[in-house]
Amino acid sequence: MAITGPTITELNLIAKSLCMDLSDSDLELHLSLLQPNLAAYELIDSLPDNVPFVTHPRTSGYEPDLEQNELNAWHRKVSIKGEKSGLLAGYKVVLKDNIFLAGVPMNNGASTLQGYIPEYDATVVSRILNAGGEIVGKAHCEYFCLSGGSHTNSKHSVKNPYNPLHSSGGSSSGCGALVGAGEVEMAIGCDQGGSIRIPASWSGCVGMKPTWGLVPYSGIMPIENTIDNAGPITNNVENNAKLLQAIAGHDGLDPRQYRQGVDDYLTSLKSNINDLKIGILTDGFNRPESEEDVDKAVLDAIQVLSKLGASIDEVSTPWHNIGQSIWLAVALEGLTDQMMLGNGMGRGWKGLHSTSLIDRHSSWRMRANELPNNLKSCLLTGQYMLEKYNGHFYAKAQNLSRRLTDEYDKLLSHFDILIMPTTPMKATPIPTADDDEALHVQRAFEMIGNTSPFDTTGHPALSIPCGIRNGLPVGMMLVGNHFDEATLYRAAQAYEQSTDWKAV
Q1: 377: which residues sit within 8 A by CB, 6+ positions away?
Q2: How confident is the model at residue 482 (pLDDT cuts 50, 70, 90)?
């Protein structure tokens, strides 16, 4: 793009926005001083961007009609075949629609981003293809991924595969619905407040939010760097471990990553659980929003683990119920600053940036009235707190997140796993046009009390189905030490192999 310098009037407006009062002579001076700086920008503009090459051939695919998309879970269908052999050979994988897939339109659930086409693949995409997997499409997600319900996508609600009048869970709503319905075996979701685990819980899938930084987020539209996570949603534990094995590990492009090694998750599935110590986190049960049958289903599932040899005891920390408030300050001020005011990428971090996303997403300001009320509420809160308190509470929440992490680590020094319901309630009804707008917003956030604290602390957390109540799945969440996904898989596999969750 051509670089144009500011006029005197534009420079004066910029100065005033920076609380500077410049005289006409000052403005003339600074206008001349800007010229060498602008020349540097012109040089940057003349150079090719340094982004990954696209290696596997593909077409842009197509948007399926209603007959092929009864749950409104598909954003786009494609067929991008990977290598002929590898860990994922023969598997079909769908991607949440905030993940870059070169040449294929990406909406991230939003009307304001419609028409955007990424020019390179996310690291997780390259790794799936290199491992022999086939990318078969993009799944609908919630508007900029800001809902735990499945009713905020700009192209209508995503339906629960067990009851189409209920939510599939968000924000990886299409991923949960497609895996839960058996249309695909594997999906990649993203999780900043529970967005892998909530759809796994409500749609009857296995969903892993890995340790923060284990899976590279490069080439995925961020919300807030310190809580961004990508991970697998699958039809069973083994496939979940297999997909995580393929996508995990350092890529040199994501500053969220701070550990190079990757464990052998598949070998861990073969071990018994006789040596495991499991803590029932009582603070995750009997919450104000809890449903009694959900709590009971999880407690019954824990007894199965006990019969399989794990030792069980109850534990508690008041910090668990403080965790959602800590998460909220980080998430709301962070997303306002990075995802919205920062045009998707923000600043202050090294790694793989997308200039095309910045250019396209910045236009949200001209169409802000189209944003759903749950997102407007987040933005209004975040902007108010940033302007009124200058980021004070974001900073304090980040400090408190270390204390929250320590509190969970104290428990995990005595237990291998903490267990609680993934979501305190089963899938809620999808709100309709006749429902009060306050209910629409409530349906976006009411389920995140147990999931969101672990996005702040970075602990791995896995949701596994443990029963059906009133025709809807119930999810049990296993939380472990940082980078100890293998132990979570070991316990989940033992439970899955010993129980038909649809019959209990």
Answers
A1: 441
A2: very high
Spans of all domains in the chain: 66-503
Please tell me the distance from the alpha carbon of residue 305 to that of residue 209, in angstroms, as a whole number: 21
Query: Which fold does the domain 66-503 belong to in CATH?
Result: Amidase signature (AS) enzymes (3.90.1300)
CA angle 365, 369, 375 (to 5 degrees): 85
196 to each of 150, 199, 200, 464, 501, how far by Cα in Å? 12, 6, 6, 11, 19
On whether the pTM is more than 0.85, the answer is yes
Concatenating the DSSP letter of every residue in 462-499 gives EEEEEEEETTEEEEEEEEESTT-HHHHHHHHHHHHHH-
How far apart are the C-alpha atoms of 327 and 190, rounded to whole Å?
A: 16
Tens of pLDDT, residue by residue over 230-243, are: 999 999 999 999 99
Q: 254-263, pLDDT tens digit by residue?
A: 999 998 889 9
What sign has the CA pseudo-torsion 354, 357, 362, 368? Answer: negative
Do 123 and 55 contact (CB within 8 A), yes or no?
Answer: no
Choice among 96, 138, 242, 426 that is catalytic:
96
pLDDT of residue 1: 76
Distances (CA, A) of 113 to 72, 110, 151, 154, 409: 18, 6, 18, 10, 40
Bridge partners of 477, per DSSP, are: 420, 463
Query: Choosing from 147, 167, 195, 201, which is the catalytic residue?
Result: 195
Q: Is 171 a catalytic residue?
A: yes
Kindly give, in sequence order, each residue whose CB lies less than 8 Å from that of residue 270, ignoring residues fewer than 6 positions away.
none
Q: According to the model, what pLDDT value does residue 2 have? A: 81
Backbone angles phi, psi at 198, to 5 degrees: -65, -50
Set 154, 157, 171, 201: catalytic member:
171
Residue 404: pLDDT band (50, 70, 90) is very high
Q: What letter does residue 191 receive in the DSSP assignment?
A: -
Measured CA to CA, the distance from residue 247 to residue 276 in angstroms comes to 27
Residue 355 exposure: Cα atoms within 13 Å on the Cβ side: 7
Residue 195 catalytic? Answer: yes
> Is the peptide bond preceding residue 311 cis, with omega within 30 degrees of 0?
no
